[in-house]
Write the structure tokens for this entry.
Amino acid sequence: MNTEIVKIEINNDKVSSSALEEKELSVFSKEELAAIKQAGEIIKNGGLVAFPTETVYGLGGDALNPESSKKIYAAKGRPSDNPLIVHIADFEDIYKITSKVPDNAKKLANAFWPGPLTMILPKSDIVPRETTGGLDTVAVRFPSDFVAQEFIRAAGGFVAAPSANISGRPSPTEAKYVIQDMDGRIDMIIDGGENEIGLESTIVDLTIDPPQVLRPGFITNEMLGDVLNEKVETDRAIIEADSGIAPRAPGMKYRHYAPKGILVIVEGNREEVVSEINRRLEEDKANGFRTGVIASDETIGEYSADVSKSSGKAGDQFTAAHRLYSILRSFDDENAERIYSESFALDGFGAAIMNRLLKAAGHQIIKL
Ligand code: AMP
Ligand code: MG
């Protein structure tokens, strides 16, 4: 299949200008609007288009067409019991794909939509089970990215989209990674530049009481709890790797985000971590392995790995999240076989970073 690649980079200055909105001018050029319209037609005709969002790139198909969902699973090599998130671009559309919208969903939508929050709700009849991985519930998200919104509207309003990577690989945060994984497998890739956040959305299950976080993300448990006026906890199955409990988000049980090399997290105080990682690097090098390290700006100069990458200043969670997947992919590009990462604090957005890092490491963590 020939994959068409179109570039649509929004100038944020243009977006924030309210004068522009008043004049009802579009943030897109005529050519860009035409390309988005064409992308929408591809979806309406049962094809697949990868598109940017504020979290990661999505691999979109018509959420209401079972054949489209089957194509998404095939393109990703994803198990078909792993449900897709349905993306909307108008809050009212939530009523069409769900059978009940509880008050807490309205409160969360008010506070965090459009944005990086996915809500699990009971599905309506028009959503095929191919899209929900056989479940009676549907995951719904209203992304804030302007290209995503325009595209979803052009596509008819309901775009099913998992991350646009081959199943098991890190989610793509730039179009070049989508091209690496999806070129020749889908009809079009919309290149919207680097994603703002770089980690997948927070998933909150509102079909149970109290609501539960099934996947941590930029919207933290505390942020959700503040809006709902109750304590919101994370599904235990995803915190305890070996609990034997099945996670409520089926996708969380699969090995994920993983580089090809072996990744181990090392946790402890800074000096101990640096010396333990260096000791292991020497051993690995003696054994002929190419090595990699995820360090911080403060420590990157202290490592002797073949490939050292900084996740930003220590404590800068936003930068660490933003860089994580491209760093993991760079180890593959540079054939790193033994990789070590410093650990991240679990507060705030850190819970999401550690969740992805632990999965990438197959939960191998050394606590000093
Ligand atoms: P991805 O699209 O790669 O971000 O993955 C979507 C995630 O949402 C996976 O972990 C799914 O298991 C989860 N998910 C989607 N729909 C549901 C649902 N109805 N119930 C629980 N989890 C869901
Ligand atoms: Mg994914």
